[in-house]
Amino acid sequence: MEDLLKQYKLSLKGIKKKREQFKEQINCLQEVIKDKRNKKKDRLLAKEEKQLLEAEDIIYAGIESDLLFAIEWMKTGKNPGNRRAIERRSVYQNTKPVDPVLMQRYFRSTENCYEWDREEKEYAASYSERVHIDDLLSVLTESEREIYLMKKGYALSLNKIADERGIVKSVVSRTLKRAEKKIEEQLLLVGGN
């Protein structure tokens, strides 16, 4: 491994030297292009050569980046850039907030019924409950519905919802209040019938 690391470092040194040469050549060509005393043909040729050198320098920059990445990986034995290995991330980075009861009820209500499993599932949302919930949510706009479900269904914080939707927390709060008001009004209408 040490020999390989030395070879990579030697290659990196050669790449850096080549990139410095490119930069010097590009600077010289830039002076030729700017100098109005040169013929137009010479300036055009210099401009084309400069573009070729810049394109080649981009390739060498990619090689340099890859070599630096590989050298760092060989030195540390880990993926460069990560401070912690994936299994050592904090609980907040690993956890996705989902209401387990909601998920359980959802999956139980969508399970297939088998011939031998005819008894009523006690924690599953019944068909009439799902229809009732859909009816209440039908008065909401798409945006209000998404925000309401994120807050009430998935128990996300207002900040998390704002981050997910790319809006500010106050907009989330107002939208949530508006959605709750619409649902209350719809509940009174449905309950009054």
UniProtKB/TrEMBL annotation:
Residues 5-58 form a coiled coil. InterPro entries: RNA_pol_sigma_r3/r4-like, WH-like_DNA-bd_sf. The keyword Coiled coil applies. Keywords: Coiled coil. It comes from the Bacteria. This is Uncharacterized protein. It comes from Niallia nealsonii.
